[in-house]
Amino acid sequence: MTSLALNYDGRYAISGGDEGVHFWDLTNPNQPRKEMLLGMGKYSTDWYEVAISADAKRALVSHQSGNGEGGVMVYDLSNPANPEGYSLIRNADYHSSNTVALSGDGNTALVGYHHWTTYNNFVTYWDLRTWDKTELRPMTGWKITPDTGGSVVQWEIALNHDGKRALIAQRNDPAPKDEPNPPRSEVQLWALDTLAGFPRFSPTG
User: Fold this and answer.
1) 74, 89, 110, 123: which is deepest, by most CB within 10 A?
2) Is the pLDDT of residue 25 over 70?
């Protein structure tokens, strides 16, 4: 199991793991029901990240495949017995999503992205009512080579209920010892209604 998400009242859940991605109806805990959203991946290294809206009517699923494929899907769960999926992002040209967040009302999505050849990293903000996309924050990760230490930027992201506020955390592994200006792990608060970033702060203060 690589990712789990529970809706507001605890009646529905999304899971991602070795057997793919499933939508769970937990209304009767003694007899939980599940529907498959995405089938099992081809590789043992396949990875999923999932998010679900408060009313369980919409879900967001990121799939990182061992061969560089995958992408991000949006699922309409209005009819739990027949969920409908729509492609939001398709991993291509060495881009790979590594984390997702969905606002409680299901209208706003954030996707953290990494480019495996340029090592440029960014977070995209999506208005799912219009499907408009905005790039929030490009960053540069460290190139990993067999004889050199380094890291690739990873993201942790969170949204409030109406999607107007977001926390974006940049996570770095230790950089090479001789690197004069290594990147720092930090967190930034964003006002998504104005697309303004507030002063950054470190998780350690």
Assistant:
1) 110
2) yes
C-alpha–C-alpha distance, residues 21 and 131, integer Å? 23
Element containing residue 170 per DSSP (H, E): strand 165-171
List pLDDT tens digits, range 176-191: 566 666 555 667 777 7
Residues in Cβ contact with 91 at an 8 Å cutoff, skipping those fewer than 6 apart: 64, 65, 68, 69, 70, 71, 97
Predicted model pTM: 0.76
Query: What is the C-alpha to C-alpha distance for residues 190 and 135, in angstroms, rounded to an integer?
Result: 12
What pairs with residue 197 in β-bridges?
A: 190
pLDDT tens digits, one per residue of 1-24: 778 999 999 999 999 888 888 999
